[in-house]
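STRUCTURE:
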């Protein structure tokens, strides 16, 4: 809504910008998780519970491959719509038209609007800062979590393990959840930690990691919003 108002965009152009960013971000976080799983092999066998919760941690590596495939396909789809719009539109309408012609047209329209969000990629002066900022964002998240893990008593934790936990958290919070992702956030971090540390460590020092990680991020996000709010209100007036 803010992008639409400030940038004088249509509703679907706003969705396209957000959608393209989400696809690229999801692809990067999925690749981060997959790379981390290769560099830091999870424990075997992985537990089928976290504390008293029946959470099958063994599903995490499988989900990593699945989400990388999903975001990779989504990126290819919107890239096709951006670079070869006519061909991509005909393929979409014909394939979905087997079910419903109206559905095929509607989906093709929506994907085409999302593809508009990739308009900046061929323009290197915009694409490079965006991609650099994206990589810096994930790198700083990994580094800060690694320092927090060591500080909370997870001796032997390394950057690859921290990368895997951040990747699990990114996948766990992709879908809408409770306000502030409360519950989903904690469970995702616990699942990431459970891939590398003994159960008693996960619910011991790991609980401190989960608490401080969530608390610090919540304070930063809410604090940043409160700092920016007065300026936004003045701009509206």
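SEQUENCE:
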């Amino acid at each position: 809504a803010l992008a639409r108002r400030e940038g004088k965009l249509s509703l679907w152009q706003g969705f396209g910008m957000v959608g393209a960013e989400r696809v690229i971000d999801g692809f990067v976080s999925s690749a981060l998780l997959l790379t981390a799983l290769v560099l830091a092999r999870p424990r075997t066998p992985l537990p089928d519970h976290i504390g008293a919760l029946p959470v099958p941690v063994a599903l995490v590596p499988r989900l990593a491959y699945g989400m990388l495939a999903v975001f990779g396909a989504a990126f290819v789809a919107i890239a096709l719509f951006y670079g070869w719009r006519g061909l991509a539109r005909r393929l979409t309408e014909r394939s979905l038209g087997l079910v419903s012609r109206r559905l095929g047209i509607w989906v093709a329209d929506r994907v085409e609007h999302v593809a508009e969000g990739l308009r900046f990629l061929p323009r290197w002066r915009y694409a490079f800062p965006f991609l650099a900022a994206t990589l810096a964002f994930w790198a700083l998240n990994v580094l800060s979590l690694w320092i927090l893990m060591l500080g909370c008593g997870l001796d032997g934790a390394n950057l690859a393990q921290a990368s895997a936990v951040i990747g699990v958290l990114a996948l766990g919070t992709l879908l809408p959840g409770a306000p502030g992702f409360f519950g989903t956030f904690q469970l995702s971090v616990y699942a990431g930690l459970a891939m590398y540390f003994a159960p008693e460590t996960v619910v011991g020092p790991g609980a401190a990691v989960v608490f401080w990680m969530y608390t610090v991020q919540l304070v930063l996000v809410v604090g940043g919003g409160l700092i920016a709010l007065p300026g936004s209100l003045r701009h509206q007036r």
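REMARK: The mean pLDDT is 83.
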